[in-house]
Amino acid sequence: MCFSLTELYTARYAKGGRGELDPATGTPRFDCWGLVMATHRLFGVELPDFHHDPEQLLAIAREFRAQRERRIWVHLGSPVIPCIVALRHDARAVRAVNHFATYIGRGRFVHILNEAGVHTSTVTEAPYASRVAGYWSYDAVG
């Protein structure tokens, strides 16, 4: 399902959410990877899905690392629109990439958090500046 940017900003967090509509409100529901997939789709880029529980931080980190080793992802020296912003977001897995966002330009990225919903942050603001683990572009051929 393809959503407009406005619809994405009204979305709410749901564990494993991939854009399913909340029956009570009609708003889409996403976890961080679901939102990354939906945001990239606005730019015409279809991303593979992660099939892990968003609370299984080390499993997510291992899967992303495995995909990088298979060269599904191309590391970028600086961000481009759109690309993945890989973050070390949770203190339970300090060195592991476990949160994802989409870079949308001018130092900004869009992401979703359970407690904050969909919002825009910058790669230079605290706490994100110290948590950015890199920028990645999808290589469908990889």
From TrEMBL:
Q: Where is the NlpC/P60 domain?
A: 1-142
Q: Mind listing the GO biological process terms from this record?
A: proteolysis
| The entry's keywords | Hydrolase, Protease, Thiol protease
- Xref: InterPro entries: NLP_P60_dom (IPR000064), Papain-like_cys_pep_sf (IPR038765)
What GO MF annotations does this protein's record show?
A: cysteine-type peptidase activity
The UniProt entry's sequence similarity note says: Belongs to the peptidase C40 family.
Q: What is this protein called?
A: Conserved domain protein
Lineage at the top is:
Bacteria, Pseudomonadati, Thermodesulfobacteriota, Desulfovibrionia, Desulfovibrionales
